[in-house]
């Protein structure tokens, strides 16, 4: 592909259609990042707006996030949407066609890994160890100097977690069960009502969302990258979460 074509800016997505199945990443897509993911808040108007859009789509709206489903529900309460959590490892509202990931870590062993992560990163008080229950996210957004230490720890910890893989992200490295990814999660939703037979549309901002973009592109859907990440498989772009919310607001 000529360079000029590669560098051509991606168009904004078209207005929402009632024939879509809409999949939305949460952090960095619907909501701005905070240094600490626990500080992220959902404006009540956004939950209401998403519920309205879900209604217009006959329920074909799912949140697909690196957070666990319990964490997604806490954010959007009292609204509760079909969801793919932990990058697709957890699903609610669709059955995953493949078996549960083989990863099974004893609670005591998991607690030890989490405790070791906190001890290992004690020298970087603004780095954050996020225990998601079955996944462990190590964030250095607030303290970039912590990155090498995070990477060293993650490599060591991976050896103690059979069936796990490393999931790189934006200022975060995550240890998570191998198996499903966001593409597989979206495919699982699309196999069942109310998602089946609709045109898939997925918006996300991070490396892990590229699995979703690939799947959606294969299904003649619309893939939307949020922010200026490059390279990307996405065919459309929105500048930031505020632009995503404006796009949704027009739809609602
Ligand atoms: Mg994201």
Number of domains: 2
Report the span from N to C terminus.
Answer: 38 Å
Strand order of the largest sheet: 4-3-2-1-9-10-11
Number of strands: 11
Distinct small-molecule ligands in the complex: magnesium ion
Q: What fraction, in percent, of the residue positions are helical?
A: 25-40%
- Average pLDDT reading: 91
Radius of gyration: 18 Å
Any key phrases for this structure?
binds magnesium ion, 8 helices, 7-stranded mixed β-sheet, 252 residues, 2 domains, alpha/beta
Describe this structure as you would to a colleague.
It comes from Thermomonas fusca. Helices cover 32% and strands 19% of the residues. The protein has 252 residues and is α/β, with parallel strands linked by helices. The chain has two domains: 18-96 and 180-251, HAD superfamily/HAD-like (Rossmann fold, 3-Layer(aba) Sandwich); 107-177, Trehalose-6-phosphate phosphatase related protein, domain 2 (Alpha-Beta Plaits, 2-Layer Sandwich), CATH 3.30.70. The strands form two sheets. The protein has a seven-stranded mixed beta sheet, sandwiched between helices. Strands 5-6-8-7 form a four-stranded antiparallel beta sheet, with helices on one face. Helix 2 (44-56) links the parallel strand 1 and strand 2. The longest helix is centred in the middle third of the chain and has 14 residues, at 107-120. The protein starts with a helix and ends with a helix.
